[in-house]
Design brief:
Length: 165
């Protein structure tokens, strides 16, 4: 019985881990580098609590600084209040909702467009049911949310079948 419970836990954890959070490489293939339109890149995604941003760049050529709205607008930052990342491979978890601002503080990077603002929404949950008589999904739902719900249901069914066997 203990083995079944362990297997069930492992299956559920394996199925839920990728379904509940996403990792986004900022800028796509070019990464966090000059010449990338980070505004256009960010518009392609819906960011949620639990997701992570991965900033990939050459250390000392660029960096990543988590700033506030006014610092973002002026491309400035305070060493006392801003979080500075310099490894070249920085993963930043999105732990809260709201707007998040990031800049590169090396040279004139920020003024040349190396800045990113995103809006983080609450973590995805199960998708709500469609309205009766409606063929359109409720507002705020997406194919990704439906896929996550489907993965969760399959994991629970497999766990149940293992326990019942």
């Amino acid at each position: 019985m203990a083995l079944r419970a362990l297997l069930m836990s492992m299956i559920v954890a394996t199925a839920l881990a990728p379904a509940l959070a996403s990792d986004y490489m900022v800028g796509g293939n070019p990464g966090w580098n000059s010449g990338v339109n980070f505004t256009s890149w960010a518009l392609k995604y819906d960011f949620h609590v639990g997701d992570s941003l991965m900033f990939m760049y050459t250390p000392k050529t660029h960096n990543v600084i988590k700033v506030n709205a006014s610092e973002f607008k002026t491309c400035t930052y305070s060493n006392d209040t801003s979080k500075i990342f310099t490894s070249g491979s920085d993963t930043i978890p999105l732990a809260g909702t709201g707007k998040k601002w990031y800049i590169s503080g090396v040279g004139k990077d920020c003024g040349a467009g190396m800045k990113l603002v995103i809006t983080v929404s609450a973590a995805d949950g199960p998708s709500p049911a469609p309205m009766p008589g409606s063929s359109t999904p409720p507002p705020g739902t997406s194919a990704a949310g439906a896929l996550k719900s489907c993965v969760w249901m399959v994991a629970v069914m497999v766990a149940y079948m293992i326990m019942a066997a």
